[in-house]
Amino acid sequence: MLLFTATACNSSLSPEPAKESGPAATWQEPASYVYTLTSTTQVMAGTFRVSVRDRKVTKAVGLDADSRRQAKDLPGEVPTIGDMLKTLGRARSEGAATAEADYAADGHPVRISLDWDENAIDDEALYVIDSYRPNPH
What is the spatial distance between Cα 34 and Cα 43, in angstroms, rounded to a whole number? Predict the structure, then answer.
């Protein structure tokens, strides 16, 4: 289980959406890839091995008890990396308290941390992306 600690920004000014620079700014989601996702959100918790083809999740295998149940009960809830980046962008544009990401050298995200409202207790999300590998087909 991951321990999740969120950091919050408190500003009376409307926040500017953060702009990416470096590898993250140039990374393009490939049409097909595989990755491991460890998620801690209200809707989805656990570790999944995810296959993406044509930018759609085609297979999500739960790697622990929680994720096996969720992969069975909630098919379609496991996001692509592109979906997570869109959520990050939306959080930034809507002024979420926390909307942060860490990136690998090639620019794909390896950790996305979200907290829409620092005063709410059920809106945090942490996505850890591991074992990312583009597929050439």
Answer: 22
Cα distance between the two ends of the chain: 34
Q: Of 94 and 20, which is predicted with more confidence?
A: 94
What is the rounded distance in angstroms from the CA atom of residue 59 to the CA atom of residue 118?
Answer: 33
- Contact predicate 93/116, CB 8 Å: no
Which residues are 48's β-sheet partners?
37, 62
Strand 109-115's sheet: what is its strand order? 56-62, 45-53, 33-40, 124-134, 109-115, 98-103
What is the torsion angle, in degrees rounded to the nearest 10, for the CA atoms of residue 34, residue 38, residue 44 and residue 49?
Answer: 30
Sorted by sequence, the CB contacts under 8 Å of residue 48 that are 6+ apart come out as: 36, 37, 38, 39, 60, 61, 62, 63, 67, 71, 78
Q: Which two tokens stand for residue 78?
A: 């496991």
Task: Tell me the whole-structure pTM to 2 decimals.
Answer: 0.79
35's tokens = 């990755």
Token pair 């622990």: residue? 64
- Examine the pLDDT at 79 and tell me if it is beyond 90: yes
